[in-house]
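Re: nicotinamide-adenine-dinucleotide structure - here you go.
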Amino acid sequence: MKICMIGAGYVGLVSAACFSEFGWTVTCVDKDENRSAELKAGRSPIYEPGLDALMERNMTAGRLTFTGELGPAVAGADVVFLAVGTPMRRGDGYADLSYVFSAVEEAAPHFDGFTVVTTKSTVPVGTSREIERRLKIKRPDADVAICSNPEFLREGSAIQDFTHPDRVLVGCDQARAREVMERLYKPLALRGSTVMFVDRESAELAKYAANAFLALKISFINEIADLCESIGADVQEVASAIGKDRRIGDKFLHPGPGYGGSCFPKDVSALIRTAREAKSPVSIIEQVERVNHERKLAMAVRIEAAAGGSVRDKTIAVLGVTFKPNTDDMRDAPSLVIVPMLQERGATVRACDPQGRQQAEPLLPGVIWCEGAQEAARDADVLVILTEWNEFRALDLEAVKATMAGNAVVDLRNVLDPEAALELGLSYQGMGRGKLASKNADNPRSRLKN
Ligand code: NAD
């Protein structure tokens, strides 16, 4: 089976590498010349655990190739995937479909024989129909079928998610296209994965509904965390208790600085706009968007409070800037709101991130970049854990404390052991840990410098 993947980003590149691992012949096209040159040389332009080895194996076997030229990759392909970006459109919050439509129009002259054109990008309801309409004008003679195959992988565990999916979802209106898609995903079906066929509108909406629901779960536990702080409960215990209920589930019940990343903010925004346009507003999701925005601002205020009420002329050490661990992706990361707010209020920010520095540097001007946590903590008044990279879980708190000027730790991901921090005399603040407030106050070893 011959596959053309248009777009070699987090989704396109991982999907291309995984399809080639199934034994299919995959050509991955990216119009970004630097990106396609890197890929041709066998180097991944993104950080994703396991991706380098997967690429190398399949490139060596001749099943995976990269190019910047669309024509030859599209010609003769059984399936042409659209895996280009669908960012939030400036000004109105809708999904920007310009990359999707340009990719379709660039590919159109090259369709050759029966071709299934499939969106892997997250696209609003009606996009498959619109692609069909445009292709009928551009290539009335082309033998094409349009499918929707939204992708549910998560950055950081993308290969595992792609190869062991909770389900594969295909929106398809034609028997011939369904046969092709069944053949494509047979390697996963044979291993027991569910491959679901639904109509195209349902597939398109399901992706937005899934992301909006997960965003809702995050905002819900963030508000419960705040309530825990007000009434003296512990959100870890509450989340663990409710997560055991199979109707609720224990995933996405970790309080934090608000969701970010390449998908949730833009997909929540696009769903809200689609629903308003359909005169069927999703008022709960509108509230989620508002709560999440305010959450990020509240985190800066929380850090300010830990610094004694003002960060002016204070040094803040920020550990982790990517929107989550195991990725270098900075899109809509909470750090992009929190760090500039601290700087505007007069703080010097020293930061480190295991993989994100290169992408973060141009986005966070004025930050002093450090090699690791220990260096970032030097002379800091407040230490903030913003992304839960594993290496921060095992932080040597004693060494960190020795190098800091102050003693406040704000753990926005609840990765540290509060007891150990308090024992060392640090003033520790986690998320939703209401019981700690009194322990902090009673702690005889705490030397509150701030
Ligand atoms: P990305 O920005 O990382 O990658 C998109 C790539 O497409 C870029 O490299 C760009 O140069 C290339 N491109 C754009 N137009 C092109 C064209 N005409 N021809 C060839 N290449 C072109 O985006 P991403 O994070 O991979 O997301 C892609 C889509 O998948 C989005 O709709 C996103 O919502 C969805 N999605 C993303 C994730 C994720 O975790 N990143 C998960 C599920 C779904």
